[in-house]
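Translate sequence into structure tokens.
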Amino acid sequence: MSPRGRELVSDAVKLLTSYGFAPVIDERGKHPKLRWINNQGHRCFLVIARSPSGSRHRANAKATLRRILRQEGGPTA
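Result follows.
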């Protein structure tokens, strides 16, 4: 995985743990996936690019994860 991909995984894990979730990193397949169980007991996941491109990749990934947390029952839902 590229350094930028590791950066995205690290950012997502930090955000999820700050919300009280225990994410699991699944690196099988083409792209790593973060899996966690939300407050309602639903399984959630986020696919992360192994080698992201573009200058806004980090901000876009954080925004996507925050959107998922709002929709799937994060602490702010």
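Note: Residues 3-18 form the longest helix (16 residues).
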